[in-house]
Known about the structure:
By secondary structure, this protein is an alpha/beta fold. The protein is built from 9 helices and 12 strands. The chain has 2 domains: about 1-85, no CATH class; about 95-335, TIM Barrel, CATH 3.20.20.370. It is about 50% helix and about 10% strand.
Amino acid sequence: MCLTTSYFEVMVHLDQFFLYKKSLLLLRRKMSKHEKDVQLMGKRIGIVLFLLFVLAGCMNQEVATTEENVLDKEGQTIIQTEQDAPLISPEEEKKNIILEDLNMRKDTVLNQDYGESVEFGEYVSGVKTRMKTNDKVIALTLDACGGENGSGYDYALMDFLLENKIKANLFINARWIEVQKEAFMELASNPLFEIENHGTEHRPLSTVPKSAWGIASTSTKSEIVDEITDNQEKILTLTGKQPRFFRSGTAFYDDVSVQMAEDLGVEIVNFDVIGDGGATFTKEQVEESMLLATAGSIIILHMNQPNSETAEGVKSAILTLLEQGFSFVHLHEYELE
């Protein structure tokens, strides 16, 4: 009985053991499946996050590209980092302001009715020829005309002025600048000299066809504007300074062009003493002419003909004028008349 009972107890325990083992296996299978589900879910979440990240990057790039395209069309910057922002120096900003003002003046002049001209010559209404003063001062004005026969550089003359610290206003033509750019930049950087505008193509200024000394004038308002402003912009770009004064090729104008020049922001300046006759005078003639100067005189000379006798005549005349108590000044230091 005891053996039988013991047998059955063992069998019961064995059944319980195998049932427990089976349950344990089922539980492990469920747990394994759950872990796999969790792992799969993790992978799926990772893939979704990755896709969202990529999609977000593409969207940002598209937005940035769109913004850039819009900005390009509008010509201005809405979103710009400090690193990417263009740096504009104060000098460049000043140039831009002057150019904007000059462009506005050009538009105004071209659209204004000035009527018909009634004068043409060197001493027409509005042209300044002297400084308004009784002081014993003289203004030397030197022309550099440019062109095939006018693009030389009189080193002897200019070196003398430098050595003796003689002030002068230099009326420079655009064509001379192209040939003598290095010399021009040196002169422009020296405070003894002030750079003025001697025109773009060295033409007399007129609203109708004229000529002076065999040189054809401008014949329209547009040509007058170009003759003045093209070289004005050139000098501004190279030096950072805008000329205050203008003298045309041959120094001939009609009265309308003088008014137009003033509206463009420059003052027409000629002379009361012809110093070297267009660099044709002898040394003696140059000296004699310059010694005719009085208080407030403006003398015209030429610095572009090194083979002339201008330099030698100027040296003698200036030394004599200094002995007489005269000094040499820039045009802007006195009111002109």
